[in-house]
Protein: Antibiotic biosynthesis monooxygenase
Organism: Labrys okinawensis
Amino acid sequence: MPAKPTIARIWRGRTRREIADVYEPYLRAEGIPLLEKTALGVQLFREDGETETWFTTISYWASMDAMTAFTKGGPTKVHHLERDAEFLIELPERIEIHRILVDRQGLR
Protein backbone atom coordinates (compact mmCIF):
# COMPACT_ATOMS: atom_id res chain seq x y z
CA MET A 1 0.00 0.00 0.00
CA PRO A 2 1.47 3.40 -0.95
CA ALA A 3 2.33 5.83 1.81
CA LYS A 4 -0.27 8.44 2.64
CA PRO A 5 0.79 12.09 2.95
CA THR A 6 0.63 13.50 6.47
CA ILE A 7 2.76 16.62 5.94
CA ALA A 8 2.55 19.47 3.42
CA ARG A 9 5.65 21.60 2.84
CA ILE A 10 4.79 25.00 1.35
CA TRP A 11 7.19 27.41 -0.36
CA ARG A 12 6.19 30.83 -1.70
CA GLY A 13 8.16 33.25 -3.83
CA ARG A 14 7.30 36.29 -5.91
CA THR A 15 8.68 37.80 -9.07
CA ARG A 16 8.09 40.97 -10.98
CA ARG A 17 5.18 40.35 -13.35
CA GLU A 18 7.29 41.04 -16.45
CA ILE A 19 9.68 38.15 -15.71
CA ALA A 20 7.16 35.61 -14.41
CA ASP A 21 6.88 33.92 -17.81
CA VAL A 22 10.64 33.29 -17.71
CA TYR A 23 10.76 32.15 -14.06
CA GLU A 24 7.89 29.66 -14.40
CA PRO A 25 9.62 27.30 -16.88
CA TYR A 26 12.84 27.61 -14.87
CA LEU A 27 11.01 26.59 -11.69
CA ARG A 28 9.28 23.74 -13.54
CA ALA A 29 12.59 22.46 -14.93
CA GLU A 30 14.89 22.98 -11.93
CA GLY A 31 12.74 22.87 -8.80
CA ILE A 32 9.81 20.57 -9.43
CA PRO A 33 11.80 17.51 -10.62
CA LEU A 34 13.80 17.50 -7.36
CA LEU A 35 10.55 17.19 -5.43
CA GLU A 36 9.03 14.65 -7.84
CA LYS A 37 11.92 12.29 -7.14
CA THR A 38 11.23 12.03 -3.40
CA ALA A 39 7.92 13.61 -2.34
CA LEU A 40 4.64 11.72 -2.55
CA GLY A 41 3.25 14.54 -4.68
CA VAL A 42 3.88 18.13 -5.68
CA GLN A 43 1.75 21.02 -6.90
CA LEU A 44 2.83 24.34 -8.40
CA PHE A 45 0.51 27.37 -8.31
CA ARG A 46 0.80 30.77 -9.95
CA GLU A 47 -1.07 33.96 -9.06
CA ASP A 48 -0.60 36.92 -11.37
CA GLY A 49 -1.12 40.39 -9.97
CA GLU A 50 -0.74 43.70 -11.72
CA THR A 51 2.95 44.14 -10.87
CA GLU A 52 3.91 40.90 -9.11
CA THR A 53 3.44 37.18 -9.59
CA TRP A 54 3.41 34.74 -6.69
CA PHE A 55 4.51 31.13 -7.11
CA THR A 56 3.55 28.55 -4.50
CA THR A 57 4.91 25.02 -4.39
CA ILE A 58 3.31 22.44 -2.13
CA SER A 59 4.99 19.08 -1.68
CA TYR A 60 3.44 16.18 0.22
CA TRP A 61 5.32 13.85 2.57
CA ALA A 62 4.55 10.66 4.47
CA SER A 63 6.23 11.95 7.64
CA MET A 64 8.52 14.58 9.10
CA ASP A 65 11.32 11.99 8.92
CA ALA A 66 10.82 11.55 5.16
CA MET A 67 10.84 15.30 4.61
CA THR A 68 13.86 15.78 6.89
CA ALA A 69 15.78 13.17 4.88
CA PHE A 70 15.05 15.15 1.70
CA THR A 71 16.12 18.45 3.27
CA LYS A 72 19.17 16.86 4.90
CA GLY A 73 18.15 17.72 8.44
CA GLY A 74 16.49 21.13 8.09
CA PRO A 75 12.84 20.75 7.05
CA THR A 76 12.09 24.48 7.41
CA LYS A 77 15.31 25.61 5.75
CA VAL A 78 14.79 27.17 2.33
CA HIS A 79 16.82 25.54 -0.44
CA HIS A 80 17.09 28.20 -3.11
CA LEU A 81 17.59 27.30 -6.74
CA GLU A 82 20.75 28.58 -8.40
CA ARG A 83 19.03 31.46 -10.21
CA ASP A 84 16.38 32.38 -7.59
CA ALA A 85 18.24 35.55 -6.58
CA GLU A 86 18.06 36.69 -10.21
CA PHE A 87 14.30 36.16 -10.50
CA LEU A 88 12.72 36.63 -7.09
CA ILE A 89 11.95 40.02 -5.55
CA GLU A 90 13.43 38.72 -2.30
CA LEU A 91 14.64 35.27 -1.33
CA PRO A 92 12.07 33.58 0.89
CA GLU A 93 13.38 33.01 4.39
CA ARG A 94 11.01 30.31 5.50
CA ILE A 95 9.09 27.24 4.52
CA GLU A 96 5.71 26.43 6.01
CA ILE A 97 5.15 22.94 7.36
CA HIS A 98 1.53 21.89 7.84
CA ARG A 99 0.07 18.65 9.16
CA ILE A 100 -2.64 17.38 6.81
CA LEU A 101 -5.85 16.99 8.78
CA VAL A 102 -8.29 16.25 5.94
CA ASP A 103 -7.26 14.75 2.60
CA ARG A 104 -10.19 14.26 0.24
CA GLN A 105 -9.67 14.34 -3.49
CA GLY A 106 -12.22 14.43 -6.26
CA LEU A 107 -14.67 16.62 -4.35
CA ARG A 108 -17.65 17.89 -6.28
